[in-house]
Design goal:
It is a single chain. With about 100 residues, this protein is of the alpha+beta class. It has one domain: Alpha-Beta Plaits (2-Layer Sandwich), CATH 3.30.70.100. Helices cover about 35% and strands about 30% of the residues. It is built from three helices and four strands. A four-stranded antiparallel beta sheet has the order 2-3-1-4. Helix 1 packs antiparallel against helix 3. It is globular. The relative contact order is 0.37.
């Protein structure tokens, strides 16, 4: 079964309050077995427009990644993220091994 991923590109607008989102999101990440592969870090924008922060989160399956995003736990956190940052997020299926 192929894994599922969230790929997020984020520009934080309110750095003082953004940690509230991180704390709230942790509840859903733990519940759905999220594994962070990329969370910030150095990057080189070689083409196109980019945001300030990049995140890749791995789930055991595409279905689990979709379920996690739409869960009540994550949607509560998402409201905070939307208030404190601008984000582009996709859920994508990985390559089946």
């Amino acid at each position: 079964m192929a894994k599922g991923y969230w790929i997020a590109h984020v520009s934080v607008k309110d750095a003082e309050h953004y940690p509230e989102y991180l704390k709230a999101g942790a509840i859903a990440y733990k519940k759905f077995g999220a594994k962070f592969l990329i969370r910030g870090g150095k990057f080189d924008a070689v083409e196109g427009q980019v945001r300030d922060r990049h995140v890749v989160v791995e789930y055991e399956s595409y279905e689990k990644a979709v379920e996690a995003y739409h869960s009540p736990e994550y949607q509560a956190a998402a409201k905070l993220r939307q208030a404190y940052a601008m984000s582009d997020i996709m859920i994508i299926e990985g390559v089946e091994e």
